[in-house]
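[job 4471] stage=fold_predict status=RUNNING
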Amino acid sequence: MVISSIDLKDGKVVQLKNGKEKILERDNADELIKDFDKFGETAIIDLDAAMGNTETDAKGRVTTANTELLKSLLHKSNVRVGGGIRSAKQAKELISLGAEKVIIGSAAWATGEERAKGEILNKAFLEELAETIGKQRIIISVDAIEGIIAIKGWKETNGIPLIKAAKEAEKYCSELLFTCVEKEGCMQGTNLDYAKQLRQAVKCRVVVAGGVSTLEEIITLEKMGCDVQLGMALYTGKVSLKDAFIGCLNWEKCEKETNGLVSVIAQSPAGEVLMMGYANRDAFEKTFASGKLTFWSRSRNELWTKGETSGNFLRVIKLRADCDRDTVLATVDPVGPSCHTGSWTCFTSEADAASTMERLYGTIAERFANPRPGSYTATLDHDLVREKVEEEAEEVCEADNHDDVVWECADLMYFLNVLMYKEGVTWKEVMAELDRRHKK
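[job 4471] inference complete, writing structure tokens
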């Protein structure tokens, strides 16, 4: 599958040719990552950090012109981040801020005395890193110029052959990111021979970048067992993420096992499974075109957009293919019940969605946007809701039996949601902060 790339330099989104010449510059990072998230993971690379254009703040943290923008993007997709990560502390902070994985470049490779002793890797750093954040969160860049590992923002090579380096690096990471530097930004294709050798040499996930410029090349790499990290081809419109997503699904396997149909599981933003169906290429095309989840009806032998009769559409937020590329998980915003029986999901008999903080928050938001006559919620201003939060928190503490605690907690959660809405704070932000503290 395709991993979309956002390269940052001087606070802007850029694309460079061979890591040097700036070809394009954009300032719509938020818009880009929102679009990229529909189709898969996003890689964010701080080029200034990679090139050593850094400063140290009052707290001793390494910063660049991109730091604040990068932080703001970390919770907006399934993000991996790289560029100048040279300490376990720095990597851990990025994970705590929302990055799913970190990409380690120059810091992974031995220098000085270690190289003189014949060492390839900076083992002390990689061991500390794996202990701090876990091997599963580590990606090591095996960027190469003419088959030799490139370091220091691709300004130098270290003399280590690509395949030899990859075999050693695999011991400390879950993925390898291979960029064919001489092809980067040239839009003339990558080196498929290097990619094939790399895929055959290691067992971990391999992501290929640098020069990939056609859908055919992406599908070739997918069949080879490699994912693709794509930049220039996306920004210039030469490759469509929609076409790449559909093209990378395992249609050959599905032809043999399910008559050419991919299984599609629909889930709510809160993770509740709503329904399951099947889709062919045309169904995916219509899903992306309409923004509404579309299936192939096996009983009617035709395309079927969920909700076209009932009005209970499933508005698509994002799609993710599984590791075998024969099943797709669709995160959707349901408009009404998902089951033809009238149940909220096809796996319960409940007629309405289960209560969640997100659902309560949404109800409160609707009450303020469209106040009904006699609505208590709509009367709550900033001062009153704070008074009620304090009052209900005290009543929770004073409750002396199980049922009273449940009752008072429900009251407190209601007023807390109102306060959050008034302050523009979402549950996604709150949960992200709790996640950051868990990983800290």
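[job 4471] summary: The CA atoms of residues 149 and 222 lie 23 Å apart.
[job 4471] exit 0
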